[in-house]
Specification:
By secondary structure, this protein is α+β, with helices and mostly antiparallel strands. The chain has one domain. It is built from four helices and ten strands, in the order H-E-H-H-E-E-E-E-E-E-E-E-E-H. A hairpin with a 2-residue loop joins strand 8 and strand 9. The N terminus is likely disordered.
């Protein structure tokens, strides 16, 4: 019987694995995959967690045709976890001293130059800090304990049922490998969450369109903001079908119509019922609040929301040459055959 193979390599593993580590206090979390993300809360603007508001006496810029101007290169790296660690249960925001201690713990856990933890963990740190995004070692300036802002506990809501769409095992063919390992989709699919490297995004705008180009992988989201309806419900795409609109100075993007393959949508949710709503709000010359709400009644007991600060950067975006079908798949499959032979 062929077994599906969910491989946690590079950023794919960092994002997929972050939820599993959330239940541990920061100092005890393994952290070898480089992401420190805590379960996100689903909170629109009325969430009780303080979200950075536009700076006083600052007027958000406009494009020549009058839309809010979000253009530029932005970085979303942070050590603040997606879900709130149990150690900080009940604390949305930390005091100055607490925040400093929390930031130090997170930076220590994510540091890939460490040599403690045994050989297996050491191998997972094979790409050391030279290759990592140093910005990911900094906690958010607002001293939050999680990127999730709703529910109020900063945790991903309970599962309706555990996803069963992957059975782990040795891959029989290329099709058994995960989509990120095959370089089909990675962090170009929403929601956008910080990972170990390549946390930059470039936003372009023209009348009626907004384009978001992540540094990692090879695709960009072209988002109509001119009132065009969604595609027919039977047309499915790797990145879903995104449609945007302006709500004051905020770009609101709703995405549906994802392809039905395993692993297409966030945290192995059900592509047929998964929906994500994103909000991009320019809150300063060098800052965007990126908020997303995900909902899937087949996966989570309720929708949930997270907010990730995006900071302007002077970094240069580089081509990310992760070719579809990944040149290294032949070695991964060869290794699987050898492990099978050794087990006999």
């Amino acid at each position: 019987m062929r077994l599906r193979f969910l491989v946690s390599l590079g950023v794919a593993g960092a994002i997929a694995g972050m939820a599993a580590a959330e239940s541990q206090p920061p100092s005890s979390r393994p952290g070898p995959n480089g992401t420190a993300v805590a379960p996100t809360q689903t909170s629109p603007p009325d969430a009780k967690v303080p979200v950075k508001a536009p700076a006083k006496n600052w007027t958000p810029p406009r494009t020549p045709w009058g839309d809010p101007d979000l253009q530029g290169i932005w970085n979303d790296a942070t050590s603040t976890p997606l879900q709130r660690p149990t150690k900080y249960a009940g604390k949305d925001v930390l005091t100055g001293d607490e925040a400093g201690e929390f930031a130090e713990e997170l930076a220590h856990d994510l540091n890939r130059d460490r040599r403690d933890g045994g050989s297996a963990i050491d191998v997972n740190r094979a790409y050391n800090e030279h290759w990592m995004d140093a910005k990911r070692l900094k906690a958010t300036a607002d001293k939050r304990t999680s990127l999730i802002i709703d529910p109020a506990d900063g945790r991903i809501p309970p599962l309706v049922q555990a996803p069963q769409r992957f059975a782990e095992g040795l891959p029989d063919s290329v099709q058994d490998m995960s989509l990120p390992v095959r370089c089909i989709i990675r962090t170009d699919s929403p929601p956008y969450l910080p990972t170990i490297y390549n946390n930059d995004f470039q936003i372009f705008q023209s009348p009626g369109l907004v384009v978001i180009a992540p540094e990692m992988i090879h695709s960009a989201r072209v988002i109509p903001v001119d009132g065009k309806p969604h595609l027919n419900e039977h047309l499915h795409q790797w990145l879903g079908d995104s449609r945007g609109r302006w709500d004051g100075n905020t770009l609101v993007v709703e995405t549906t119509n994802f392809r039905r393959e395993d692993g297409v949508t966030f945290l192995n949710s059900n592509p047929a019922t998964f929906k994500i709503t994103e909000r991009f709000t320019r809150v300063g010359r060098d800052a965007i609040n990126y908020t997303f709400t995900v909902e899937d009644p087949q996966t989570w007991s309720r929708p949930w929301t997270a907010m990730v600060p995006w900071n302007r950067t002077d970094d240069q975006l580089y081509e990310y040459e992760c070719h579809e079908s990944n040149y290294d798949l032949v070695h991964l499959l060869t290794g699987a055959r050898k492990r099978q032979a050794q087990a006999k």
